[in-house]
Design brief:
The complex is a heterodimer of chains A (152) and B (626). With 152 residues, chain A is α+β, with helices and mostly antiparallel strands. Chain A folds into 2 domains: 2-76, Ubiquitin-like (UB roll); 85-151, DNA polymerase, domain 1. In chain A, 37% of the residues lie in helices and 15% in strands. Chain A has a 5-stranded mixed sheet, with helices on both faces. In chain A, helix 3 (85-92) crosses helix 6. With 626 residues, chain B is α+β, with helices and mostly antiparallel strands. Chain B is 28% helix and 24% strand. Chain B contains 16 helices and 25 strands. The chains are: A alpha+beta (152), B alpha+beta (626). The interface between A and B is large, with 60 and 62 residues.
Chain lengths: 152, 626
C-alpha cells in the first residue's frame, strides 16, 4: 500500500504492507531509528514520537493512522544544526546511561514543555512516567527537564 | 593478536597516533551505558596532555583490540583504565623524544595528579540525543533480512514435528530454517518474520527434568561455630528469600550476523566479544580468525549479555539462508527466554556476646548458579555464586556454606552476581540483632568493624543522613546497610521510606557514601551510583519473574512492573570518598548491593514490619506488621 506521511516537516512516500506500524516504517523504510522497539504493546515509551505535538506510541499506531498527523521524531527536534533546549539539557545533566530510552524521554519532555513551560517536579514525574528506564537516570532526567524549562 | 589476558600489554596495541594528530585508543572492554568510553578517553587525554575531543576509543572489535576476557565485575577501570594510564604516560614520553609509539608498557608509572573533571560528561551524548547513535538493532547491512525464532514452551523441549506450510506461504517469507533444535523464519520485514514464526505448527517433546543434585561448597569452615552460637547472649536466626528476576533491558536482545562461506561478521551487544567470537566459530565451523565480532551498544545490559544467545541464533539463521540477518527478540521472548537472576533462600544465624560483639555466625546460602558459565568449580563458584557471602565484620567463629541448586530456568549474571542476595541477608540480620539488643544498628556495625575504610563510609553516610538526629516514626523510617564489595569498593547507604497504612512503601531520600579508590570521572561514578540504587530499589520493591516449573508466565511490563519516574527516590545524595593514592576498584556493581537491606531495614524502622522475602510488597508489609 502507498502512503504519504509528514515526518519532521517533510512529506515522505511509503510503499508498505497494510497494517505496518509507524515504528517499523520509521526504522526500516525511512531510516529514522531514534524511536526504538521496546515492547510492541505501548507499555515502555521507547517508541514515542510526537503526533501533532502529543507523545504517542509509534508501535501501536499504523502508518495509515499516522498519515493524518504531523509526525516528529527525535531526529527532527534540533533545528538548523542547533540542539533543542531539551536535548542540550540532557547532555549537560548527563541524563542517560545506555541511551536506549532517551529518545522516548526527550519526546515526552518536549510534549510536556510545549504545554507547560514551567512544570513542577510532580508534573515532570507524571509526564515521564510512561517512559521506562532500567539504568535508573530518572532523577537526572527530571533535572534536565527543569534545566530546559529555565532556558525556554 | 594477544592470546592471554593483559599479559605484557604493548603500547602499539593500545594507543595509535593518527596522521591528523588525533589519538585512537584500543580496549577489549565494551560500553553498554556504564561510561567507560568516556573514562578511557579522559584517562588517555589527561596522560597525553590533550583535550578529550582528540581521542577516539575503539572498544571490543575483535579485529582491532587486544584480547580481553570480558566486561564484568566492575573491573574495566581497574584493569584497562590502569593499562591505558600507563600507556598514555609512556606515549607522552616517546612523543616528546620523537620516537615511535611501541614497546612494552611498564608496570610502574607513578600516578600523576587527578585529571580535572572537565570536558564532556559523556562522549556519546550528542549522538544519543539527536538519534544518530547506532544501537545493535539499528545496524543495517545491504541485503539484510529479518529473523524470528519459534520458541519451545519450556527450556530443553525439542521439536518432534514441524508443519511450516502456512508459514512458507505468508507474505515476505524467504526461508524457514531448521538447524538442529533451532527453528526460525527469515523474512523481508520484521512484522512478516514474527507473524510467520507464530504460524509455524510445531509439536514439542518435553524431556523429563534432569535429576540434578545440589552442590554444596564450604566457603569458610569452623567446627566450633554451632557450639559458640548456642552460648551467644543475643542470637537471631532467620531465612531471607529473593525470587527470580529478569535483567529486563528496555530493548530486547538483538544481533546482526553476516555469515559467508569462509568468514563471518557479527554485530552484537556482547560483554564478551572474544568469548562470543570463539563460540560463533565453533557453531559455524569456522576458524576463530575468520570470525569478527563488532560490539555495538545494546540497550543497557546488567549481566545477561555475557551470554551469546541472540548473536548465535542470528548467525545460524544467516548461515542457513546466506544473507545478513537482523534478529531482535520480542519483549515476551526477553522475559521468558532471557537468562534470569537466580532465586535464593538464605538461612542465617548470628549471635553476639553481652557487649554486642559477634561470637559466631552460620550462613547457608541456597541459590542457583550465578555467572555466565554457571560454574560449579568450588574456587570460582565461591567468587560468583558465593560472592560476598562472608560478612565484613570480625567474627571469631564463622561457618559459611554455598549450596548451588539446579534451576528450571536459564540463569546467568546479573549486576553484582550473588553479592546482592548475600548482603541483603547479612545486613538484614545485623539489623535484627541490633533490634533484639535494643541498640543503634550503626553502633553495632562500628563495634564489630576494624577496617578503617568501612568505618569511614559508615560514619560519612551517618553524618550526611543525620542518622543519629533525624526523627523517625509516623510511618517514616531510616535503614542502614553497608558492604565491602568483592573487588574492594567500600559502600554504606541509608534509605528513607514512608510506609502507608495499607503497607505500601514509598522511597524518600537516599544517601550513599562510596570509597572506590581513585576516582577517574566523578560524574560517571555518581551516575553509576544513582542508577544502581534506582535499579536495586526497583527489584527490592517490585520485581518477580513469575514462573512454574520453568514456564515463565511474565510476558510484558504489565506483569513485570519496574520502578517508574513516580517510584524513584525523591533525592539521592552521594559522597565520593576515594583517596587519590588508592587504586580504582570499580563502581558499576557495588552501589546496588546494600540497597535491598537498607530499604528492608528502613521499613522495619518505619512500622515494625520485618520483611524477609523480596519484593517488599504492601501485602508482605501488612502480614509482617502485626
Amino acid at each position: 500500500m502507498r502512503y504519504r506521511l509528514e515526518v519532521n516537516g517533510t512529506l515522505r512516500d511509503l510503499d508498505v504492507p497494510r497494517g505496518t506500524t509507524l515504528l517499523e516504517a520509521l526504522r526500516d523504510d525511512l531510516g529514522l531509528v531514534a524511536a526504538r522497539y521496546g515492547c510492541g504493546r505501548g507499555q515502555c515509551g521507547a517508541c514515542f514520537v510526537l503526533a501533532d505535538g502529543r507523545a504517542v506510541t509509534s508501535c501501536l499506531m499504523s502508518v495509515e493512522q499516522a498519515a493524518a498527523h504531523r509526525i516528529v521524531t527525535v531526529e527532527g527536534l534540533a533545528s538548523g544544526g542547533e540542539l533543542a533546549a531539551i536535548q542540550s539539557a540532557f547532555v549537560e545533566e548527563d541524563a542517560m546511561q545506555c541511551g536506549y530510552c532517551t529518545s522516548g524521554m526527550l519526546i515526552s519532555a518536549a510534549a510536556l514543555l510545549a504545554e507547560q513551560p514551567s512544570p513542577t517536579d510532580d508534573e515532570i514525574r507524571d509526564a515521564l512516567a510512561p517512559n521506562l528506564c532500567r539504568c535508573g537516570v530518572q532523577l537526572r532526567a527530571i533535572r534536565a527537564v527543569k534545566r530546559a524549562a529555565e532556558q525556554l | 593478536m594477544i592470546a592471554q589476558p593483559n599479559e605484557s600489554p604493548r603500547l602499539e596495541e593500545r594507543i595509535r597516533l593518527e596522521p591528523d594528530g588525533r589519538v585512537t585508543v584500543f580496549s577489549g572492554k565494551v560500553e553498554f551505558g556504564q561510561g567507560i568510553r568516556t573514562a578511557f578517553a579522559k584517562i588517555v587525554a589527561a596522560g597525553l596532555g590533550i583535550t578529550v575531543d582528540r581521542v577516539t576509543v575503539v572498544l571490543g572489535d575483535t579485529a582491532q583490540v587486544p584480547y580481553d576476557r570480558g566486561t564484568f565485575g566492575s573491573r574495566s577501570i581497574a584493569q584497562d583504565g590502569e593499562i591505558l594510564r600507563r600507556a598514555a604516560a609512556l606515549a607522552r614520553r616517546l612523543i616528546a623524544e620523537g620516537r615511535p609509539l611501541e614497546g612494552p608498557i611498564p608496570e610502574d608509572v607513578p600516578v600523576g595528579p587527578p585529571a580535572p573533571d572537565a570536558g564532556p560528561r559523556r562522549v556519546e551524548a550528542p549522538e544519543i540525543v539527536t538519534g544518530r547513535a547506532r544501537f545493535v538493532a539499528d545496524a543495517r547491512l545491504p541485503g539484510m533480512l529479518r529473523g524470528a525464532i519459534a520458541r519451545p514452551p519450556v527450556r530443553g523441549a525439542r521439536p518432534a514435528a514441524v508443519d511450516d506450510r502456512a508459514a512458507r506461504a505468508m507474505a515476505g517469507v524467504v526461508a524457514v530454517v531448521r538447524d538442529g533444535d533451532l527453528i526460525g523464519v527469515v523474512a523481508k520485514r520484521q512484522a512478516q518474520a514474527v507473524a510467520a514464526a507464530q504460524a509455524l505448527e510445531i509439536e514439542w517433546t518435553v524431556p523429563p527434568a534432569a535429576d540434578l543434585d545440589t552442590v554444596s561448597i564450604p566457603i569458610n569452615e569452623d567446627a566450633a561455630t554451632l557450639a559458640a552460637l548456642a552460648g551467644a547472649a543475643t542470637r537471631v536466626a532467620a531465612t531471607y528469600a529473593m525470587p527470580y528476576i529478569s535483567n529486563a533491558p528496555i530493548g530486547p536482545s538483538a544481533a546482526v550476523a553476516d555469515v559467508r562461506t569462509d568468514e563471518a561478521t557479527v554485530y552484537a551487544g556482547t560483554q564478551r566479544p572474544f568469548g562470543l567470537r570463539d563460540e560463533l566459530a565453533a557453531v559455524l565451523g569456522l576458524p576463530v580468525d575468520a570470525v569478527r565480532v563488532i560490539p555495538l551498544m545494546p540497550s543497557g545490559t546488567y549481566g545477561r549479555n555475557s551470554l551469546g544467545d541472540v548473536a548465535v541464533e542470528a548467525a545460524r539463521l544467516s548461515k542457513a539462508c546466506g544473507r545478513p540477518i537482523l534478529l531482535q527478540w520480542s519483549r515476551e521472548e526477553e522475559f521468558a527466554h532471557g537468562p534470569a537472576r537466580p532465586a535464593c533462600a538464605l538461612d542465617i544465624e548470628a549471635g553476639t556476646d553481652a557487649d554486642g560483639r559477634f561470637v559466631a555466625w552460620r550462613y547457608d546460602e541456597h541459590t542457583n548458579a550465578h555467572g555466565y558459565g554457571g560454574t560449579l568449580d568450588p574456587r570460582q563458584a565461591a567468587f560468583t555464586s558465593g560472592r560476598n557471602a562472608v560478612p565484613p565484620y570480625v567474627v571469631p567463629h564463622l561457618a559459611v556454606t554455598l549450596h548451588i541448586e539446579p534451576s528450571p530456568l536459564r540463569t546467568a549474571s546479573f549486576r553484582s552476581l550473588a553479592a546482592a542476595e548475600n548482603v541483603f541477608a547479612i545486613e538484614s540480620v545485623v539489623d535484627e540483632i541490633a533490634a533484639a539488643r535494643g541498640e543503634d544498628p550503626l553502633e553495632l556495625r562500628l563495634r564489630n568493624t576494624r577496617d578503617p575504610r568501612l568505618r569511614a563510609v559508615l560514619e560519612a553516610v551517618a553524618e550526611r543522613s543525620e542518622w543519629r538526629e533525624r526523627p523517625r516514626g509516623d510511618g517514616r523510617g531510616l535503614g542502614l546497610a553497608c558492604t565491602l564489595y568483592a573487588h574492594g569498593t567500600y559502600i554504606a547507604q541509608v534509605a528513607e521510606v514512608t510506609v502507608a497504612p495499607n503497607g505500601r512503601v514509598r522511597l524518600g531520600r537516599f544517601w550513599c557514601a562510596i570509597d572506590p579508590g581513585r576516582v577517574i570521572d566523578p560524574n560517571g561514578v555518581r551516575n553509576q551510583c544513582e542508577g544502581a540504587i534506582v535499579q536495586s530499589a526497583s527489584w527490592t520493591l517490585l520485581e518477580e519473574l513469575k514462573q512454574r516449573d520453568g514456564r515463565v508466565a511474565t510476558t510484558g511490563w504489565d506483569t513485570y512492573p519496574i520502578a517508574t519516574f513516580r517510584d524513584v527516590p525523591s533525592e539521592i545524595d552521594i559522597e565520593l570518598m576515594g583517596a587519590p593514592g588508592e587504586p580504582p576498584t570499580g563502581v558499576g556493581e557495588p552501589p546496588g548491593v546494600p540497597v535491598a537491606a537498607a530499604i528492608a531495614n528502613a521499613v522495619f524502622a518505619a512500622c515494625g514490619a520485618r520483611v524477609r522475602e523480596l519484593p517488599i510488597t504492601a501485602d508482605r508489609v501488612r502480614a509482617a506488621r502485626r
